Each structure stands twice: as structure tokens, then as C-alpha cells.
Amino acid sequence: MATEFLNEKTYVEKAENVIKSLIDENKGKLVTTSKLRNILSMAADIYDKILIEPDDRISDELNARIEYLRVRVIYEYGRDSAWPNLLQKFVDKSELITVLKQIDGDRKKYILFYRYLEALVAFHKYHGGKD
After folding, report:
1. Would 63 be classed as within a structural domain?
2. Is residue 130 exposed (0-12), middle (13-18) or buried (19+ Cβ within 10 Å)?
3. 82 pLDDT above the threshold of 50
């Protein structure tokens, strides 16, 4: 299922809805904050460099790092095979892998992806996510 790329008007609401939906579906249980922070940390390193990029297109070096971030998300997804698979549910519901693919070298899309990821982590913590 291909999702429409995030937009500046709705990404915060989308992030909150993802977290609320996960809470409802998993009887209040959420993926650990530390797992989310690992993903956020990698994304933040890329974000810091993209902010100083002069062009609207992301450099090949940063595109490679975004692809590696996608691989790491997929790896963590695969590692989370034990029930209740909270990270898998988080990645599926938030559509992180799809959104990462849709960045496609576009600087503004990466910035929006990063803000969406920050919003997910913030709502996760706000709604009781534990370390």
C-alpha cells in the first residue's frame, strides 16, 4: 500500500494518530523509547547535514546515508520477531520504510520525514512510552 507523502499541515496529527492507534491495538503497550531514539539519532545526524545543504536535491553521500537508515529500520524490524512485535507494528503503522523510500533525493521531503519522526517520538513519550 503506497501512502501519500507527508505534508506540513498533517504530519503532527498523523503522528499522534499512529501512536494512539498503537496504544489501542496493543492494550497500552508501546515499543521502547530507546529503540525509537536509536532510529531518531541516525536520522538526526543526516538532518543536521541536510540543513546546511545548499541545493533542493540531497547529495549522493547523504542519499546513501538515508538508504542506510532505511536498511537499519528494516534490520530492526526483522530483529523484532518475538511477540508482541511492537517495533514491527510501529514501523508498519507509521509507514517509516515507505516514507523513507519516497524521499527520493528531495531535501524538503527529508526535513518533513525527520519532523514526522520527531513527532512520533514526542507523542510516544507523551502517551506513556517507556525506556
Report:
1. yes
2. exposed
3. yes
